[in-house]
Amino acid sequence: MDRKQIVLGVIGFDCHSVGNRILDYFFTEKGYKVHNLGVMVSQEEFIDAAQETGAGVIMVSSLYGHGEIDCEGLRDKCIERGLDDILLYVGGNLVVGKTPFKSVETKFLKMGYDRVFSPDTDLEVVNNLLIEDLKLG
Amino acid sequence: MYLLSIDIGSTWTKGALFSMENGVMKLVSRDAIPTTQENLSEGVFEIKSRLTSKTPDMVRFSSSAKGGLGISVIGLVQDLSLYAGKLAAWSSGGKLISVHANGLTQSGMNEILSKHPDIILITGGTDGGHEEKIIRAATTVQESRFPGTVVYAGNSHIQEIISKIFKNRVVVTENIMPSLGSFQGEKASDIIRKVFLSEIVEGKGLGKVREILGCDPVPTPVSMMNLVDSITRFNENWGFFGAVDLGGATTDVYSSSTEDYTSGIVFRGLPEPLIKRTVEGDLGMRVSSKNTIENMDQNPETDNTGIQNWVKQISQDFSKISQSKEEKYMDRELARICIRNSMLRHCGEIEKVWTTEGEISVQKGRNLKKLKKLVLTGGYLSQFSDFSIYSSSFPGLPLIVDSKEKLIPQSPDIYFDDKYLWPLIGNFAEDFPEAAAAFAVESLSG
Fold first, then answer.
1. For B55-110, what is each residue's pLDDT tens digit?
2. Which residue in B76, B266, B360 is closest to A51 by CB distance?
3. In the CATH scheme, what is the homologous superfamily, with its name and number, of domain A5-126?
4. What ipTM did this prediction achieve?
5. Residues 6 or more apart from B383 whose CB is under 8 A from it?
6. How far apart are CA B428 and CA B25, in angstroms?
7. Is B249 exposed, middle or buried (0-12, 13-18, 19+ CB in 10 A)?
8. Which of B97, B102, B192, B314 has the smallest CB count inside 10 Å?
9. How many Å apart are CA A112 and CA A87, to the nearest integer?
10. Through-space distance between the first and last CA atoms of chain B, rounded to whole angstroms
11. Is-catalytic flag, A24?
């Protein structure tokens, strides 16, 4: 089973597709097999895809401010479906308003996400963390 | 030249003699007798001698007798590999005996053994994807001493492991879902058809028939698929059409459609094949009539007691034909239940959701709302060309269930295969695709 695979998508009723395409392009270039589910993806679809592909990480984007509601419970469902050690990355405009990123990060880490990214994150940084987390290095 | 075509159904054995001159196919004669369940070749011999005393230039035959081609499908995720497995089983002419998501449990295996499918199809995992549950399922199947044929069409990276588990007593083919959201079922369907010829024909009592007629049988649905395919390719204005084959044991729905997804629609799930066949083993006019009425709550106005009694009678005698006005009414009710439910299961649905960008439609499955032409065939439908039967199966369109709109044909033109020739013409759809397609359309009333 090849762990160097990413399940990618924009969660909830969110239709922002530009960032999603950039992520797809970037990680494909970096040699990952990217399974891009596109926009408006439900938690179940993320998990279905991860289960079928055996991907090492699910990357969730949320741009429209409802991230907190949409992302809650994904970790629990993964465990329920037997994906105990899959990595969960989340990034974007995760909450509405000017909440300091530190408190957003704490909140999402508590929900069971392994890494939380602010909208201005350099993708190289994400890639380096991913190599580390997937123990590819 | 003369072409002899025979179709052995679960209830009737049908035959037709066609002539073929200058690329034009015509009907010479047609006949049907009750299927000789004990010895299929008796009925075939009888039909053959009734149709012609001479030796025809070509012979083809199909069969759906003895339960047709029974397949159990094992997959991983319900909406992904398992659905792909079902599509592949249907297009190979099979009938689903049981389906198992998320691998296979011991009780799932016991269910398979008790239902005696001819084939177990194991799918699951994209190429390089999931392995563990598929390997475990394969081991469970191997240890069960399942007597039929096992076909493996899952994650291609573990083909060797799978072959080893089965000590090579497995037919391995390409993954039907090599990457997420793709469906490539042709190879698996071809393999299943070959398995049918090499392993299953004798067990279905067709070996003797093969001897008499001197050619290989195909499962009846394969003939129908070939015909639908030919019509789509060769007949103008028939690129987007459907057919319902309402039989004694199953209700099959076929549709050919190249759907382009209009903007504003988000599509979910696997892309649909150009020609899609679904088979409902719990919907039928005779052999499955007991199961059919379990789906009755969809037709609230049906007379409950009357239909229960009628089903009791026909279950004791599958070849019973409705005579009185009441019996005819009951058969029509059965037909409506079959048409309604099989069509609902064949078609997809659209849900409208509100997003920050406005209203968006999320579609799952096939959209046949604008389907222009619908052909109705099968023993009952061919005999009673009742043009209101489709619209009366769907009173009050559009149909919205749990705020999801069902994408069934809204007002198709109805055509009847009133001479009940389609499966018989279908037997020659591979040899003479253009002539068979033209003649099939010409033979309809509507």
1. 899 999 999 877 789 999 999 999 999 999 999 999 898 999 999 999 999 999 99
2. B76
3. Cobalamin-binding domain (3.40.50.280)
4. 0.87
5. B418, B420
6. 10
7. buried
8. B102
9. 9
10. 29
11. no
